[in-house]
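Before relying on records like the one below, remember that each one covers exactly one chain. Contacts with other chains, cofactors or solvent are not represented anywhere in the record.
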Amino acid sequence: MSSIEAVSDDQNPSANVAFLVIDDDVVDQEIVKRSFKKAHLKHPLIFANNGEEGLRIMRGEDPNVRLNEPYMVLLDLNMPVMDGFEVLDAIRKDDQLQDKVVFVLSTSDDERDVKRAYHSGISGYIKKNDIAKGFTEATRMLSSYGNVIVFP
């Protein structure tokens, strides 16, 4: 797990919204970092390598990582230890986490996975197939989303 601290930017109020990226693929983690940098976004980025680690961070149980509110979760579905659907179920059953904003990042375009994820209360489903090419646009959308919504 690693984190990147935000640089203060008064021109970008959404830079206060952190992103917890729960994804076991270090290449995809690097693509997320580069996409935020390419889009000139200065959000804090926190990375968890599996679902259990991500839940520990969200619950404040990891002494090495501090995740400040507000934050959004970018969640991979296909991971070892605890997959994304298990993470979503745990989030939605936890009184402290159930209202968190979660976007799925997945290689799966299976309609059943998409429907199941939305049924679990996600805010959006982003396919990773062309993540290296098109993710900069997605990061801008996520930043805008974080800037205009009211977090619980």
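Residues 131-148 form the longest helix (18 residues).
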